[in-house]
């Protein structure tokens, strides 16, 4: 359980580094990533984080945009937590409502933040591990039951994500193949632009 709970701590630390970097001129994200390793993949990961931090900086500079983004994020995370709570109730757990709300909010938040850690697509496995570790530690629930709740919760959310994505692609007339090919071309151009160490 301690190892699984450390996933949540690591995710929170990564987000803290991103936020601190976004609010200053120093590039803490690249420093941390390059401290871990110095190979070409690390350079690629650092570039992705830098782009993310840049997006945060641009959003923070515009008060209206920041408020709109923040409000939308809170709404989406609230729906995310409500889904998890409904799954808890579906499992027939007899828990105090206040405890369930508090731990549910924390577990979903840590589970989502854990997806910052590079891993399988959709954070499958990482989300479940972090969620189950938090729930089984803070509530009188076995790890196995907490893991079952996490798996069902994540399946429901991923089904909605895939279905919503398919509808959006159809409505916006977006080709997944063209989008992937365009992204690959952009990444190839970025790699070619990187300086080569001799």
TrEMBL record:
Which Pfam families does the UniProt entry name for this protein?
Answer: LPG_synthase_TM (PF03706)
Per UniProt, subcellular location reads as:
Cell membrane
Stretches that traverse the bilayer? 74-93, 100-117, 129-152
Which UniProt keywords are given for this protein, alphabetically ordered? Cell membrane, Membrane, Transmembrane, Transmembrane helix
Keyword Transport set for record: no
| Membrane topology designation | Multi-pass membrane protein
- Report if keyword Cell membrane is assigned: yes
Using the UniProt record, give the first listed, main subcellular location: membrane
GO terms for cellular component: plasma membrane
Per the record, the similarity remark reads:
Belongs to the UPF0104 family.
NCBIfam families on file: flippase-like domain
The name this protein carries in UniProt is Flippase-like domain-containing protein
> Which source organism?
Halobacterium bonnevillei
Q: What is the lineage of its organism?
A: Archaea, Methanobacteriati, Methanobacteriota, Stenosarchaea group, Halobacteria
């Amino acid at each position: 359980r301690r190892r699984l709970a450390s996933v949540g701590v690591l995710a929170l630390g990564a987000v803290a580094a991103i936020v601190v970097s976004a609010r200053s001129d120093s590039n803490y994200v690249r420093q941390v990533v390059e401290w871990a390793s110095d190979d070409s993949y690390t350079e690629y990961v650092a570039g992705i984080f830098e782009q993310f931090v840049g997006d945060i900086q641009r959003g923070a500079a515009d008060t209206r945009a920041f408020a709109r983004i923040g409000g939308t994020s809170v709404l989406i995370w609230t729906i995310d937590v409500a889904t998890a709570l409904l799954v808890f109730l579906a499992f027939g757990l007899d828990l105090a409502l206040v405890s369930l709300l508090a731990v549910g909010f924390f577990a979903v938040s840590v589970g989502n933040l854990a997806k910052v850690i590079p891993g399988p697509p959709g954070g499958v496995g990482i989300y479940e591990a972090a969620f189950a570790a938090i729930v089984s530690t803070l509530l009188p629930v076995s790890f196995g039951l907490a893991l079952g709740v996490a798996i069902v919760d994540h399946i429901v959310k991923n089904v909605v994500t895939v279905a919503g994505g398919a509808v959006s692609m159809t409505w916006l007339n977006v080709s997944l193949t063209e989008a992937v090919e365009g992204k690959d071309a952009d990444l190839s151009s970025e790699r070619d632009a990187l300086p080569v160490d001799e």
